Amino acid sequence: MTDRPYPQVILDVLRAAGDRTVFEDGDRHTSGAQLLDLVGRVRGGLDRAGIKPGDGVALAVGVTAEAFAAIVAAHTAGARVTGVRPGLPGAHLAHVIGDATVVADATRAADLPGVDPLPLGALLDGPAVDPVPAARPGDIARIMHTSGSTGLPKGCLQTYAAMAAGWAAHPGRWPLALRRLGPRLRRHLVFGTLASQVMFEYGVMAIAAGGTLVAARPDLPGAIIRHRATSTVITVAKLRAVVEAARADRSGLESLRALMVSGSPLDPSLLADALDVLGPVVFHGYGQTETGMIAMVSPEEMGEARVRASVGRPPPENAVEIRDADGRPVPAGEVGEVFVRTPAQACGYLDDPVESAAVFAGGWVRTRDLGFLDPDGYLHLAGRARDVIIVNATIVYAVPVERVLAAHPSVAEAHVVGAPSEATGEAVHAFVVPAGGVVDPAPLREAVRAELGEAAVPATVTVIDRTPLTAAGKPDKRALRRPIAGR
């Protein structure tokens, strides 16, 4: 813990970087001192715009030194900062912005139909001020929105005290997996929007580790090769594409040291392929918008299949309990719902006291994920609590079925959903993306039957060209369910 108000630690990191390049955008190199000056200039602009502690600021920014500075500056002003993700549907966009002042840079202004944003360039057009943090510890620092895959995005509220307790800018606090990751962040690719919680925090970590953020297009693996990148954050779908490209030609990827998989669970078969093709570069973990990082497994630990099937060991600073339906802890190896406590967790949902009470209770966060802890403390996920499918009174978890299907050589991706069935109450339905050839449902069903039993066997196996994704890049299971509902 620290008594320094957030984001003083980031200001200190930039000050310590001095003349070292911390942000590279083509031929433009921005040093720590220059980035600190940009923070002061944006803060001056926010002051002139009348932004006070507690005011809402919604940031629609891309990947520039100015975008990074805007995020830090808004926090020094004590604002409630919301990141506006690209590609939000109209209703989601209005919901996320709420009553906040919208600040947009030139790369994102077109993403805001019907909104009159405050140009980031106008905030920079003035003298720098000393960006002294203005918030109190209990003030809301950040509203982090969930993906919205089950409706309107929920706004997770994180206080300035919680952000000060975070790990990213504090190498001395990094858990073992992050200590192994830090030296690999020498040239860290960033793309999309720095207002993303994941993109920003890995960016802060890279600078704190002595690395440089490199602005890039998300055309992996091309961007890795062009920029001689050592690390980046990657979705499961992008990882699969990188593995396939590298399987054909790995030249140019010699610089790569770390890929941090984010957004959705990583199937052990894809992880094994990635390790075989790319080498020991994949860091696999588990976290939520509500909690931040819960667990992570580093390549050094991935020698055993059992460990590769996990999402890592929670660090000592995190508490993890697996509980049954009555809220009682269960023994190691038994599946239940995952409850966690982390130093930087959110404290509730914006304007939703009912859901806040259901998820944030007694200092714990109810993840609504199912999982178990093995005897060595590694956490294994078994799916979402709502991904339980009850077939003839037998509980079937979606994730184990997906893993069996994805392990078949004819399958590149597999996704499982449940739907009502007159014969069995509910039934398992599978959607598979071919690995390049013809998919025969019969051996897939037999593989599930042999490993998981008759109740888990898919009633239907549907071949799809690609997996539908939500705006956050996660598999869209609601979209997969629609054709089943129409049968």
Automatic annotation (TrEMBL):
* Taxonomic classification: Bacteria, Bacillati, Actinomycetota, Actinomycetes, Micromonosporales
Gene source species: Catenuloplanes atrovinosus
Matches recorded under InterPro entries: AMP-bd_C, AMP-bd_C_sf, AMP-binding_CS, AMP-dep_synth/lig_dom, ANL_N_sf, ATP-dep_AMP-bd_enzyme
Q: Where is the AMP-binding enzyme C-terminal domain?
A: 401-474
Pfam families attached to this UniProt entry: AMP-binding (PF00501), AMP-binding_C (PF13193)
Q: Which UniProt keywords apply?
A: Ligase
Q: Which PANTHER family match?
A: LONG-CHAIN-FATTY-ACID--COA LIGASE, NONRIBOSOMAL PEPTIDE SYNTHASE PES1 (EUROFUNG)-RELATED
Please report the name of this protein according to its UniProt entry: Acyl-CoA synthetase (AMP-forming)/AMP-acid ligase II
Q: Which CDD domains match?
A: AFD_class_I
Domain AMP-dependent synthetase/ligase, chain residue ranges per copy: 16-350
Task: Name one molecular function that GO assigns to this entry.
Answer: acid-thiol ligase activity
